[in-house]
Specification:
heterodimer, A: 100 residues, mainly beta, Ubiquitin-like (UB roll), B: 456 residues, six-stranded mixed beta sheet, 15 helices, 8 strands, binds zinc ion, tRNA processing (chain A), Ubiquitin-related modifier 1 homolog (chain A), isopeptide bond (chain A)
């Protein structure tokens, strides 16, 4: 079953996504196991990012200086990369880096 | 709601593997509600307690320093970014009637449009200004928008600074714009450009504030930004200036204090503050927007500091506390200042210093190659002073300030900024050249009469 979540990029992170801040996305069902933030980052890199992926992801996580909020809470409280996405989750990426 | 269990307040292992369940979410350390943000490894706050913590921190910064008097007019530099947006909101909250420890100063806001050096078109610049104007108008505080080109004007201070009611169009003189662009293009490296714009911006802020009758300028530098600056300043030969560049109050200008009220906030705290209040900071292009992480010294330092901070959340506070140990002695108004950035000169050092060694090897290598510096550097003996001693040398029109002359009255960091420029006397703002020329003449006269002075 597809999983619908909303993604939001701000603080300059949206510059890497054609300046589009809000994205409603439906993620295809995963054969092996649930969707986690870790999988979501790979999906974003392959499907949404328009340019300079290294300014958004580094290794398997987000570039340092980009904050992640899961349903208005710091992802550090939510298991970070291992958080399992639920339908209608709202994931916000905020760049705190100078110039985005 | 969960209560604090024994042993739960020890530093939690960051879980790298394993499934997360909602029940594991940590409670707020203040009220026990579900937490929404982690500040340091141990401090988890819910939304409400986090916002209270921010307001307290902001107010106490003013309380502790007692720098700003009740009813004092202050000018706030607003850039539209994350920290400016939070600063504006914190001031608004602090002045409101319901505030507990009410702030009692009277703020006005100014936005400096730097579109010219970002290669923006007139339309793009107008659009930016419209957005900023809308935000400032909404705040209800008095405000104005000034273009960076104003720094090229003759006089050291603007004649007047008026607050505006609405934004019509950006006033830019074409001559100033041309001059600023040629200055900008003569600065070669991105690192030097970043230094240059920082100095120009701060000179302009000071002259705007002076013209408006203010004696304090508030800026939105966060602790994260200042730790990055601290390290990149050391890398760029400004180690002597650290207390000025990163302190709560920068008092290098005799009549104007630059105050940094959000320096106890990290970039994360500021961004979370805005997110929880639903504030939308503007995303305006900067010199290093979308640039690689090694594009400039500052950018590289930012990558380094934020990278460390991600793995060691106390990085920023550690760097910062180290910087804290350096303090500024009260600046004597007689002290020789750098004629560009206004910080005390750090070049008056013993002959055996590293600086003099560098200068010596530079002079050796220059002897073999022909100097490319414009202007005649050896004719100043005949040109610059008429020898009458009645002040008539002040009227000399053909006093040409060479790069070497200028370097003499600049700090080490500013010398590096002008190092790659082909000439200076037709590029730098007129007001910088005027005061530099005066300082050069004073210095020369002092050197000439040195032997006749009684030792004091
Ligand atoms: Zn709480
Ligand atoms: Zn300087």
């Amino acid at each position: 079953m597809e999983l619908v979540v909303s993604l939001e990029f701000s603080g300059g992170a949206e510059l890497l996504f054609d300046k589009v801040k809000n994205h409603e996305v439906s993620l295809p069902a995963r054969a092996n196991g649930p969707w986690t933030i870790k999988h979501l980052l790979v999906w974003i890199k392959d499907n949404l990012l328009k340019e300079r992926p290294e300014l958004f992801v580094q290794g398997d996580t987000v570039r340092p200086g980009i904050l992640v909020l899961i349903n208005d809470a710091d992802w550090e409280l939510m298991g970070e990369l291992n958080y399992e996405l639920k339908s209608k989750d709202r994931i916000v990426f905020i760049s705190t880096l100078h110039g985005g | 709601m969960c209560s604090v269990q024994d042993g739960e307040d020890v530093i939690p292992e960051r879980k790298k593997t394993g499934k997360f369940t909602e029940g594991e979410r940590r409670p707020c350390m203040k009220c026990g509600e579900s937490a929404a943000v982690i500040i340091r490894v141990n401090d988890a706050f819910c939304r409400g307690c986090f916002l209270t913590y921010c307001t307290h921190k902001f107010r106490s910064a003013f309380g502790k320093s007692k720098l700003i008097r009740d009813g004092e007019k202050v000018l706030v530099a607003f850039s539209g970014g994350q920290s400016s947006t939070a600063l504006l909101h914190l001031i608004q909250e602090g002045l409101s009637e319901r505030a507990q420890k009410k702030l009692r100063f009277i703020p006005s806001f100014v936005f400096i449009d730097e579109g010219a050096v970002l290669n923006q078109t007139q339309e793009e610049r107008s659009e930016t200004c419209q957005q900023v104007a809308a935000l400032l108008q909404q705040s209800g505080f008095p405000w104005n928008i000034i273009s960076l080109e104003k720094i090229m004007q003759e006089s050291n201070s603007l004649e007047k600074f008026e607050l505006s009611e609405q934004f019509e169009s950006l006033h830019v003189s074409e001559k100033d714009q041309e001059e600023l662009k040629s200055l900008w293009n003569s600065v070669k490296t991105l690192s030097a450009k970043e230094e240059m714009i920082r100095t120009l911006r701060s000179r302009l802020l000071v002259s705007i504030a002076t013209a408006g009758g203010y004696s304090k300028v508030l800026v939105g530098d966060t602790g994260t930004k200042l730790s990055i600056r601290l390290l990149s300043d050391v890398a760029q030969g400004r180690g002597m200036h650290l207390p000025f560049e990163t302190g709560f109050a920068d008092c290098r200008h005799p009549e104007m204090k630059i105050v940094r009220p959000v320096r106890d906030f990290t970039a994360k705290e500021v961004a979370m503050y805005n997110a929880f209040h639903n504030l939308q900071p503007l995303v305006l292009p900067a010199l290093t927007t979308k640039a690689a992480s090694n594009a400039s010294i500052e950018r590289l330092t930012e990558t380094f500091v934020t990278g460390l901070q991600a793995d060691f959340p106390s990085t920023v506070s550690t760097i910062f506390r180290t910087g804290e140990k350096l303090s500024v002695e009260d600046m004597d108004s007689e002290v020789d200042r750098c004629q560009f950035c206004q910080a005390p000169l750090d070049t008056n050092v013993p002959a055996s210093s590293a600086l003099n060694a560098t200068l010596f090897s530079q002079s050796l290598s220059q002897k073999s190659s022909t100097s490319t510096i414009g202007g005649a550097s050896n004719c100043d003996k005949t040109d610059s002073c008429c020898g009458e001693g009645d002040g008539s040398c002040q009227t000399q029109k053909d006093f040409r300030l060479t790069k070497e002359d200028l370097a003499d009255v600049l700090c080490y960091g500013c010398r590096l900024v002008i190092k790659d420029m082909n000439s200076v006397d037709d590029l730098l703002p007129a007001n910088v050249l005027q005061s530099a020329a005066a300082a050069v003449r004073r210095k020369k006269m002092k050197d000439e009469i040195q032997d006749f002075l009684l030792p004091s």
